[in-house]
């Protein structure tokens, strides 16, 4: 039986923060929850990863309701997903043939590259004058799939790509929420197909669902008072944190 205590309360606060930011920017739910759980030791990592997948879908359903799902850039979403799915299996295959030392070096190097690109974009936020080409979106999907297969981190490539598009923030946000929710659904199905559902996951999911729903609704009703450019800088700041996390895991 799950007892509601201090750890559960902290985890729910983390879920609320992550849900609000995800509904605002279109990404970072998993990044924030996993970072908080790792730093504070709130729950087992495997349970948390499964919880992130399930509650990402809850956040997406809440954030996209009321017709906002139609704002997605379907061209970008389709090509990224089409390239991401097979690339994920390639990443998983590479992972099975990569030593721990090689994986750490690769992960750390990727983190350094992500830190550099995020810092550049934070201070020189430029939107493209024209939408990116189909090959560019496909390449983005390939990179996301490889990163997802190797490191279980899909977010940086599509986030970086979408926040440079000449689209409205609502379109960028909807596209990213669709992308991450669909990938989370596939991962969740795959995990539940092979592993039994534990009591800890069920209890935390029951506690977390209303928190995630309310936080996503709050993001729609009370959005942060940020300009489009400031929100883009905030998004690249979150990518910077992701890069730091990868670098630390890889090199230390």
Automatic annotation (TrEMBL):
Keywords: Cell membrane, Membrane, Transmembrane, Transmembrane helix, Transport. The keyword Cytoplasm does not apply. It is a multi-pass membrane protein. The chain crosses the membrane at residues 39-64, 76-97, 103-122, 134-155, 175-194, 201-219, 231-248. InterPro entries: TM_pro_TauE-like, TSUP. It comes from the Bacteria. It is found in: Cell membrane. The keyword Transmembrane helix applies. Belongs to the 4-toluene sulfonate uptake permease (TSUP) (TC 2.A.102) family. This is Probable membrane transporter protein.
């Amino acid at each position: 039986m799950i007892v509601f205590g201090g750890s559960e309360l902290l985890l729910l606060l983390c879920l609320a923060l992550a849900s609000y930011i995800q509904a605002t920017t279109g990404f970072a739910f998993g990044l924030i929850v996993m970072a908080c759980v790792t730093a504070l030791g709130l729950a087992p990592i495997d349970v948390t990863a499964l919880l992130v997948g399930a509650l990402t879908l809850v956040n997406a359903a809440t954030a996209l309701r009321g017709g906002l799902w139609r704002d997605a850039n379907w061209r970008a979403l389709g090509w990224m997903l089409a390239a991401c799915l097979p690339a994920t299996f390639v990443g998983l295959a590479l992972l099975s043939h990569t030593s721990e030392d090689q994986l750490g070096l690769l992960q750390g190097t990727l983190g350094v590259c992500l830190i550099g690109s995020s810092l550049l974009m934070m201070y020189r936020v430029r939107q493209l004058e024209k939408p990116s080409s189909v090959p560019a979106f496909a390449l983005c999907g390939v990179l996301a799939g490889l990163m997802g297969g190797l490191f279980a981190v899909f977010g940086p490539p599509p986030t970086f790509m979408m926040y440079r598009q000449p689209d409205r923030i609502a379109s960028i946000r909807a596209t990213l929420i669709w992308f991450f929710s669909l990938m989370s659904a596939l991962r969740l199905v795959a995990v539940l197909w092979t592993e039994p559902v534990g009591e800890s996951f069920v209890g935390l999911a029951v506690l977390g669902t209303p928190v995630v729903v309310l936080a996503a609704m709050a993001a729609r009703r009370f959005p942060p008072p940020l300009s489009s450019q400031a929100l883009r800088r905030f998004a690249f700041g979150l990518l910077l944190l992701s890069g730091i996390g990868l670098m630390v895991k890889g090199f230390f």
